[in-house]
Amino acid sequence: MTTIQVHDTQGVRVLKFNRPDKRNAIDLAMYRQLTEYLIQGDADNGIHAFLLCGSHDCFTSGNDVAEFLQHPDLGPEHPAVRFLYCLTELKKPLVAAVSGVAVGIGTTLLLHCDLVYADETARFKMPFVDLALVPEAGASLLLPRLVGYQKAAELLLLGETFDATVASHYGLVNRVCSATELYEFALNQTCAIAAKSPLAVQQTKALMRVGKQSLQQQMQLELSYFADRLQSPQAREIFLKFLQR
Protein backbone atom coordinates (compact mmCIF):
# COMPACT_ATOMS: atom_id res chain seq x y z
CA MET A 1 0.00 0.00 0.00
CA THR A 2 1.25 3.47 -0.90
CA THR A 3 1.10 5.54 2.28
CA ILE A 4 1.48 8.83 0.39
CA GLN A 5 -0.70 8.93 -2.69
CA VAL A 6 0.21 11.49 -5.34
CA HIS A 7 -1.37 12.62 -8.57
CA ASP A 8 -1.07 15.74 -10.71
CA THR A 9 -4.06 17.53 -12.21
CA GLN A 10 -4.51 20.97 -13.80
CA GLY A 11 -1.13 22.17 -12.58
CA VAL A 12 -1.78 20.93 -9.02
CA ARG A 13 0.11 18.15 -7.24
CA VAL A 14 -2.25 16.42 -4.81
CA LEU A 15 -0.58 14.62 -1.89
CA LYS A 16 -2.75 12.40 0.30
CA PHE A 17 -1.96 10.65 3.58
CA ASN A 18 -3.00 7.02 3.13
CA ARG A 19 -2.25 4.96 6.21
CA PRO A 20 -5.75 4.33 7.57
CA ASP A 21 -4.76 1.46 9.86
CA LYS A 22 -2.53 3.89 11.81
CA ARG A 23 -4.87 6.89 11.52
CA ASN A 24 -2.45 8.38 8.99
CA ALA A 25 0.38 8.59 11.54
CA ILE A 26 3.44 9.82 9.67
CA ASP A 27 6.40 7.46 9.68
CA LEU A 28 9.89 8.13 8.31
CA ALA A 29 9.13 6.65 4.90
CA MET A 30 6.14 8.99 4.55
CA TYR A 31 8.30 11.98 5.46
CA ARG A 32 10.81 10.94 2.79
CA GLN A 33 8.07 10.62 0.18
CA LEU A 34 6.46 13.93 1.07
CA THR A 35 9.78 15.75 0.84
CA GLU A 36 10.64 14.11 -2.47
CA TYR A 37 7.26 14.90 -4.03
CA LEU A 38 7.39 18.51 -2.84
CA ILE A 39 10.94 19.12 -4.06
CA GLN A 40 10.17 17.51 -7.42
CA GLY A 41 6.99 19.54 -7.79
CA ASP A 42 8.69 22.79 -6.83
CA ALA A 43 11.20 22.21 -9.64
CA ASP A 44 8.60 21.07 -12.20
CA ASN A 45 7.35 23.89 -14.44
CA GLY A 46 4.13 21.95 -14.97
CA ILE A 47 3.27 22.03 -11.26
CA HIS A 48 2.09 25.40 -9.94
CA ALA A 49 0.62 24.53 -6.52
CA PHE A 50 0.23 21.70 -4.00
CA LEU A 51 -2.81 20.31 -2.18
CA LEU A 52 -2.27 18.21 0.95
CA CYS A 53 -5.11 16.11 2.36
CA GLY A 54 -5.92 13.02 4.38
CA SER A 55 -8.84 10.61 4.43
CA HIS A 56 -12.46 11.64 4.97
CA ASP A 57 -12.24 10.95 8.71
CA CYS A 58 -8.59 11.69 9.53
CA PHE A 59 -6.01 14.20 8.33
CA THR A 60 -3.18 12.76 10.45
CA SER A 61 -2.87 11.63 14.06
CA GLY A 62 0.70 12.97 14.14
CA ASN A 63 4.07 11.29 14.21
CA ASP A 64 4.55 7.55 14.36
CA VAL A 65 5.59 7.25 18.02
CA ALA A 66 7.40 3.92 17.69
CA GLU A 67 9.68 5.15 14.91
CA PHE A 68 10.55 8.35 16.72
CA LEU A 69 11.60 6.34 19.76
CA GLN A 70 13.84 4.23 17.50
CA HIS A 71 15.29 7.27 15.69
CA PRO A 72 15.61 10.05 18.29
CA ASP A 73 18.59 11.81 16.66
CA LEU A 74 16.96 14.80 14.97
CA GLY A 75 19.92 15.85 12.86
CA PRO A 76 19.61 17.59 9.47
CA GLU A 77 19.27 14.29 7.57
CA HIS A 78 16.43 12.95 9.71
CA PRO A 79 13.42 12.56 7.35
CA ALA A 80 11.10 14.60 9.57
CA VAL A 81 13.64 17.41 9.86
CA ARG A 82 14.21 17.48 6.09
CA PHE A 83 10.44 17.71 5.58
CA LEU A 84 10.10 20.62 8.00
CA TYR A 85 12.85 22.60 6.31
CA CYS A 86 11.40 21.73 2.91
CA LEU A 87 8.18 23.48 3.98
CA THR A 88 10.12 26.69 4.64
CA GLU A 89 11.81 26.53 1.22
CA LEU A 90 8.74 25.89 -0.96
CA LYS A 91 8.38 28.51 -3.67
CA LYS A 92 4.93 27.37 -4.80
CA PRO A 93 1.69 27.65 -2.78
CA LEU A 94 0.71 24.83 -0.45
CA VAL A 95 -2.99 24.32 0.35
CA ALA A 96 -4.38 21.89 2.94
CA ALA A 97 -7.78 20.20 3.21
CA VAL A 98 -8.39 18.95 6.75
CA SER A 99 -11.03 16.41 7.73
CA GLY A 100 -11.11 14.60 11.07
CA VAL A 101 -8.22 14.75 13.51
CA ALA A 102 -5.10 16.84 12.95
CA VAL A 103 -2.78 16.13 15.87
CA GLY A 104 0.70 17.50 16.55
CA ILE A 105 2.49 17.92 13.24
CA GLY A 106 -0.97 17.61 11.67
CA THR A 107 -1.73 21.05 13.10
CA THR A 108 1.70 22.69 13.15
CA LEU A 109 2.41 21.99 9.46
CA LEU A 110 -0.74 24.00 8.65
CA LEU A 111 1.12 27.10 9.83
CA HIS A 112 3.31 26.68 6.72
CA CYS A 113 0.36 26.37 4.34
CA ASP A 114 -0.80 29.34 2.31
CA LEU A 115 -4.46 28.34 2.46
CA VAL A 116 -6.20 25.89 4.79
CA TYR A 117 -9.73 24.53 4.42
CA ALA A 118 -11.44 22.24 6.92
CA ASP A 119 -14.76 20.48 7.25
CA GLU A 120 -17.08 20.35 10.23
CA THR A 121 -15.47 17.14 11.54
CA ALA A 122 -11.96 18.65 11.81
CA ARG A 123 -10.39 18.59 15.26
CA PHE A 124 -7.01 20.18 15.99
CA LYS A 125 -4.67 19.44 18.88
CA MET A 126 -1.04 20.18 19.81
CA PRO A 127 -0.37 17.89 22.80
CA PHE A 128 3.40 18.36 22.96
CA VAL A 129 3.62 19.35 26.62
CA ASP A 130 1.24 16.50 27.52
CA LEU A 131 3.83 14.16 25.97
CA ALA A 132 6.69 15.83 27.89
CA LEU A 133 7.87 17.38 24.60
CA VAL A 134 8.07 20.88 23.08
CA PRO A 135 6.46 22.22 19.88
CA GLU A 136 8.08 21.73 16.47
CA ALA A 137 7.77 23.05 12.89
CA GLY A 138 8.38 26.59 14.09
CA ALA A 139 5.05 26.61 15.95
CA SER A 140 6.55 28.44 18.92
CA LEU A 141 7.23 31.38 16.58
CA LEU A 142 4.45 31.12 13.99
CA LEU A 143 1.52 30.47 16.32
CA PRO A 144 2.05 33.56 18.55
CA ARG A 145 2.40 35.63 15.36
CA LEU A 146 -0.94 34.29 14.14
CA VAL A 147 -3.09 34.29 17.28
CA GLY A 148 -1.16 36.38 19.83
CA TYR A 149 1.00 35.23 22.72
CA GLN A 150 -1.71 34.46 25.30
CA LYS A 151 -3.84 32.40 22.95
CA ALA A 152 -0.77 30.55 21.64
CA ALA A 153 0.26 29.84 25.23
CA GLU A 154 -3.20 28.43 25.93
CA LEU A 155 -3.09 26.16 22.87
CA LEU A 156 0.47 24.93 23.43
CA LEU A 157 0.61 24.69 27.24
CA LEU A 158 -2.85 23.19 27.79
CA GLY A 159 -2.89 21.20 24.53
CA GLU A 160 -6.67 21.21 24.33
CA THR A 161 -8.61 20.10 21.26
CA PHE A 162 -10.37 22.78 19.21
CA ASP A 163 -12.74 22.49 16.28
CA ALA A 164 -12.80 23.98 12.79
CA THR A 165 -14.98 26.94 13.78
CA VAL A 166 -12.50 27.95 16.47
CA ALA A 167 -9.60 27.35 14.07
CA SER A 168 -11.29 29.66 11.58
CA HIS A 169 -11.70 32.31 14.29
CA TYR A 170 -7.98 32.05 15.07
CA GLY A 171 -7.09 32.49 11.39
CA LEU A 172 -5.63 29.00 11.08
CA VAL A 173 -8.41 27.96 8.67
CA ASN A 174 -9.66 30.07 5.75
CA ARG A 175 -13.07 28.43 5.43
CA VAL A 176 -15.11 25.67 7.02
CA CYS A 177 -16.90 23.46 4.49
CA SER A 178 -19.27 20.55 4.74
CA ALA A 179 -17.64 17.13 4.66
CA THR A 180 -19.11 16.44 1.22
CA GLU A 181 -17.73 19.60 -0.39
CA LEU A 182 -14.34 19.97 1.32
CA TYR A 183 -12.05 18.18 -1.13
CA GLU A 184 -13.69 19.54 -4.27
CA PHE A 185 -13.72 23.08 -2.90
CA ALA A 186 -10.07 22.91 -1.79
CA LEU A 187 -9.02 21.44 -5.14
CA ASN A 188 -10.91 24.11 -7.06
CA GLN A 189 -9.25 26.85 -5.01
CA THR A 190 -5.83 25.31 -5.60
CA CYS A 191 -6.51 24.97 -9.32
CA ALA A 192 -7.58 28.62 -9.42
CA ILE A 193 -4.18 29.61 -8.01
CA ALA A 194 -2.39 27.22 -10.37
CA ALA A 195 -4.08 28.90 -13.36
CA LYS A 196 -2.58 32.30 -12.53
CA SER A 197 0.84 33.64 -13.53
CA PRO A 198 3.30 31.25 -11.82
CA LEU A 199 6.00 33.86 -11.31
CA ALA A 200 3.56 36.43 -9.93
CA VAL A 201 2.14 33.84 -7.52
CA GLN A 202 5.58 32.72 -6.35
CA GLN A 203 6.87 36.26 -5.91
CA THR A 204 3.74 37.24 -3.98
CA LYS A 205 4.23 34.27 -1.66
CA ALA A 206 7.91 35.16 -1.19
CA LEU A 207 6.99 38.76 -0.31
CA MET A 208 4.54 37.58 2.35
CA ARG A 209 6.79 34.86 3.77
CA VAL A 210 9.41 37.15 5.26
CA GLY A 211 11.79 36.17 8.05
CA LYS A 212 12.67 32.70 6.77
CA GLN A 213 16.07 32.79 8.45
CA SER A 214 14.64 33.58 11.88
CA LEU A 215 12.01 30.87 11.39
CA GLN A 216 14.64 28.27 10.55
CA GLN A 217 16.72 29.33 13.55
CA GLN A 218 13.68 28.91 15.80
CA MET A 219 12.99 25.50 14.26
CA GLN A 220 16.54 24.43 15.00
CA LEU A 221 16.19 25.54 18.62
CA GLU A 222 12.91 23.65 18.90
CA LEU A 223 14.50 20.53 17.46
CA SER A 224 17.37 20.62 19.95
CA TYR A 225 14.89 20.83 22.83
CA PHE A 226 12.60 18.25 21.19
CA ALA A 227 15.44 15.72 20.78
CA ASP A 228 16.47 16.22 24.39
CA ARG A 229 12.91 15.83 25.65
CA LEU A 230 12.31 12.80 23.40
CA GLN A 231 15.00 10.90 25.28
CA SER A 232 13.84 12.03 28.73
CA PRO A 233 12.44 9.44 31.16
CA GLN A 234 9.10 11.29 31.30
CA ALA A 235 8.56 11.24 27.54
CA ARG A 236 9.70 7.64 27.11
CA GLU A 237 7.36 6.49 29.88
CA ILE A 238 4.41 8.27 28.24
CA PHE A 239 5.24 6.87 24.81
CA LEU A 240 5.71 3.31 26.07
CA LYS A 241 2.33 3.46 27.81
CA PHE A 242 0.82 4.71 24.56
CA LEU A 243 2.35 1.83 22.58
CA GLN A 244 1.14 -0.76 25.08
CA ARG A 245 -2.51 0.30 24.75
From TrEMBL:
The keyword Plastid does not apply. The lineage of its organism: Bacteria, Pseudomonadati, Pseudomonadota, Gammaproteobacteria, Alteromonadales. The keyword Isomerase applies. Pfam families: ECH_1. It is found in: Peroxisome. Gene3D superfamilies: 2-enoyl-CoA Hydratase, Chain A, domain 1. It comes from the Bacteria. This is Enoyl-CoA hydratase. InterPro entries: ClpP/crotonase-like_dom_sf, ECH/Chromodomain_protein, Enoyl-CoA_hydra/iso. Its main location: other. Keywords: Isomerase, Peroxisome.
